[in-house]
Amino acid sequence: MSDATDFLALSELLTGETGLDEQLAEAYRGRLSDAYPQDLPALLTAYRAAATQGNPLGALTTAVNADPKLARVTRETVTAWYTAQFLKPDETPDAPATPQQYQSGLIWQVIKAHPLATAPVPPAASGYGYWTQHP
Amino acid sequence: MNPNAPYDVVIVGAGVAGSLTACRLKATRPDARILILEAGNNPTTPGERAAFVDTYQISPTKSVPSPYAELPNNKEKFAPSSDGVPDFTVMNQYYDEDGKLDVFASGFQRMIGGSTWAWRGNTPRFVPNDFQLKTKYGVGVDWPFSYDELEPYYMQAENELGISGNATEWVGITPRSGDYPMPGMAPSYGDELARTALSTIKPIDGIPVKIVTTPQARNSQPYRGRSACQGNSSCIPVCPTGAKYDASIHVNKARDELGVELRTASVATRIVPPAGDGQPYTVFFRDWTTVDHAEQQLTAKHVVLALNAIETPKLWLLSGLNNSSDQVGRNLMDHHSAEMIGLFGQPVYPFRGPQSALGVDTFRDGDFRKNNGAFRMTIGNDGWGRSGSPEKTLQSFLWDDTNKKVKLLGKPLQQAVADKVTRMLRISISTEQLPNPDNRVTLSDKTDALGIPHPKIAYKLDDYSKRALAYGHSVTRRMWQHLEDTAGATRIDPVQPTLKYNGAGHLMGTMRMGDKASAVVDAWGNSHDHPGIWIVGSSVFPTGGTANPTLTVAALTLRTADALADALATTP
After folding, report:
1. Strand ranges (E), B351-483
2. Does the residue B430 lie in any domain?
3. Of B229, B232, B412, the CB nearest to A117
4. Which residue among A16, A96, A113 sits closest to B413, beta carbon to beta carbon?
5. Do B352 and A57 touch (CB under 8 A)?
6. pTM of the model
7. Is the CB of A73 inside 8 Å of chain B's CB atoms?
8. Which of A101, A98, A89, A95 shows the shortest CA–CA distance to A25?
9. Is there a domain that residue B274 lies in?
10. What phi, psi does B518 have (nearest 5°)?
11. pLDDT in tens, B191-229
12. Domain CATH for B567
């Protein structure tokens, strides 16, 4: 399998989401590869091994926590999917590349809100007063 | 008309005070030749608003100035804004604070429309006793007029800015001679849960904990060509729709409908009084879009300083204008804000709708003001506000920073984040500070890209202000105790007063109004020392009260503009 396919599958395992966007995955794989050029491939290797186990997420968690560098790039991969932003090895932020990436952050759907400055539009409940209702 | 003839009025600053002055003067004196001089040069089109949103969303910090940081006056430091970050190590260094005293923690935006681009839009009025603090409580000073005298202008200001509010909720707090132009902003789903839970709380120290809908300069229905609020939850730092008022509305009206001239990218450097009777004032400025940034000049019969409480005294001091009261730059005030956070017993689903809609305004006045400052309270609709973002919560469940290991992943991580963030609630206080002549703005040796000195700030919280923070904590803690007892609230923080504070962004004082011996301007904003110079904005506030200042700025501005219009009628 390709790195692109495996990164998408890895991302779905780490986030618990299915049907993640392929183009977004490629964008994040590119940004994470730039920041973690050795560690991201190592994480993909660890994923391929874990994917054959009965409990892939458990196996992967054990594997990455055995190596602080793998644990770190795992953290940043999850963070990228949630917020479109992650920390580079020097602790400086790698900001969302586009407003669309920011708006795609999983954190908003997880907390049943919307990205800041991007109010919901139909068919979602929207317009003046939508916020008075249970989401 | 001779283009070299003096302007009738030059207004320095295109924020809410400057643009309202221009509109009011033109409405009263259509023939007056008026120019607004503005340091920023941002477009005020819908496209520019959308660009601000894009800049904000890709900003790594999402700080208050983040939508506007790329504007050349900020980026190239031609006319720097201040970020107001209360940390000497990261603040943008516009303020020259020596670090030995307390931090002045509020910033501002230098742009067409001013800081109203980045305000929340809350517009409570001052309470009547705010105008007579010395007489009623023996502290601070009195204003040179009463609430009743300003009330008609409050009404006009509320119509100009477009305020949503429920008048009946304010009976007994701020007297009104009429209704708001729009119904109050709809509270959020979570607001109603909090309001219901607090409806059974008994008075605290004899004061009822009455929750009211905060008046807001935000449309609850279409108003003057702008839509109703769409609930973007980004009031600070940018409203994507313009449903929240910002002063670009009155700038555009002044320029496009009323024929007021607007000169942008022009930073005023000094004001020179007339050489003799019948001569005009000279306003010097530098246009940072020119190659050499050379100083230019124009003349005016009247000059209106419509800058904020930092920039107005800075320009006055740069100009070497008379300061017979010795109060120029003194009595700098802010409201000090602190928040108490906790988890509500069930989801309140924050980050949907305006950032706040409800508040408690019953602790804004009372005999306790003899001893300590009053405070406003806000029930937040933005989770833990400044205390903890959803992103920080994500990291707390995802990452073990001590052992450098991942903790939760997959659905368990989702569930943990969802359970915590959806129950986040904050109750904030914003406290009163007394004027203190030692809290002052002077000129720094440091300069911007045009060679203009930065402001130098000396600032210290007095005990009255600290006791306001402590008392505000005490009241808020008792409200949270009620939520613990009746609504399953947990994780309350802080449980002890810390006296830590943020700035509310409410720059006030430094050019106060009053009598000639103790104030810079008279009750109409007219300079005691230079009769052709008028000052509008929160710099003229003698005391700061607890209300977010912009509505009072607008009311005072309309009052000053009327006085100036009368003066124009008698100016040759």
Report:
1. 356-360, 375-380, 399-400, 405-406, 424-431, 440-447, 453-458
2. no
3. B232
4. A16
5. no
6. 0.97
7. no
8. A101
9. yes
10. -125, 5
11. 999 999 999 999 999 999 999 999 999 999 999 999 999
12. 3.50.50.60
